[in-house]
Specification:
The termini are close together. The strands form five sheets. This protein has a nine-stranded mixed sheet, sandwiched between helices. It has a single domain, classed as Alkaline Phosphatase, subunit A (3-Layer(aba) Sandwich), CATH 3.40.720. It is globular. The longest helix has 25 residues. It has about 425 residues and is α/β, with parallel strands linked by helices. The protein has eleven helices and 17 strands. Helices cover about 30% and strands about 15% of the residues.
Length: about 425
Amino acid sequence: METADTDTADYACRSNEHQLGRRQFMGGTLAGLGAAVGMGFLTRPAAARQLLASQKRILLIYMSGGLSQFESWDPKPGAETGGPFAAIPTSVPGIHISELLPNTAKQMHHLLLVRGINTSENDHERGYFIMQTGRDTMPGSQYPLLGAVAAKALERPGSELPGNLVASTGAGGRANNSAYLGPEYGSITVGGKDGLMNSALPSGVTVTADGQRQAWRRATNERYLRKKHSSETDAYTQSYEQALQLMQRREVFDITKESQADQDRYGKNWFGQSVLMARRLLEHDIPFVEISHGNYDSHANNFNFHIEHLDEFDAYFPLLISDLADRGMLESTLVVVMTEFGRTPNITPYFGRDHWGKSWSMAMAGCGLPAGAVYGKTDAKGTEVVEGQVDHRQLFHTYLHAAGVDTSGAFEIDGRSYPIADPAVGPIKELFS
């Protein structure tokens, strides 16, 4: 080991995933919002800082569509597969990344690059599934996504806030991606106008009137539950109560509460604001936060496209890493820059790259992982992994293990035992030695 949310684009393949916009893909809509009373997390700043230093969190930045490793973490300048871009030095001597990431290169001393990923999966939906669940696809099998597993494993008892949030500037909603863990661990998308859409009482509805409405709802629910009680009714009840808590804590999701200087640094575009939202949520001790950037499915015009999109990513990702480090949060926050697969070494007649799951790369930072380091290696053309090969199962173990989760354990759900991660493998042990 060396030390835009977009709709389907013309260059993209026509898989089901890319027939939907990213926000639409992530889930439905929040319903039944009301009001409730609770205690704020950061009422005691000194205690809050101490808690943030001891509890672990995960931030996932999902590069939707398949980010090219050649144009990012594992450039091959001069090779026939390498494309037109140079490799530039970073803040760590001897480690180079694509010239499309000049600001990220300055933060390399905080990053770990994993360059030996081989998932042998070239389909968008299956690639997304295996990277987000750490499991192979099997007919009839459902597994919770990483956010749901992290929310359950890193749960904060008594917390009023959900443990699995997607930070976006689009419409809010809850996704059905928690499988057997239950709907309370499914992801909720937050963002948009005022930070949390539909979180204020309707005009003309007073707090007193809303309290009466909620009391009537609870009484009606209790009467119904005496006759018919199931996991579905529990989920329904829980979703209403959680919505009430979200309304009471709506300021958590309002990035205008950040300093004007920070708002200016992170800009007015959707990705910069999503990154700032993610930082704010992490500071309020949300166990798992996800943001997305893409669509990177560049079957044509790959090079111009990566110039445009990585320029935006490179403007705000390094800011986030620097801020987390400066605030003492990187030691307890795992940052994962993930995609579903890489891009082919060969370049198409349309100057694109196709899907490639055989030898590709990703980046991580924080939670005690080696910093300023590279794990794994591909050959000179980027066609094969020649050292430190890993797959989605080992990576899934690694994320959770870095966050302090015993991935050899299991969740006990309704009398059944569900392994937290694939028991056939474990974390990448060299990263923790």
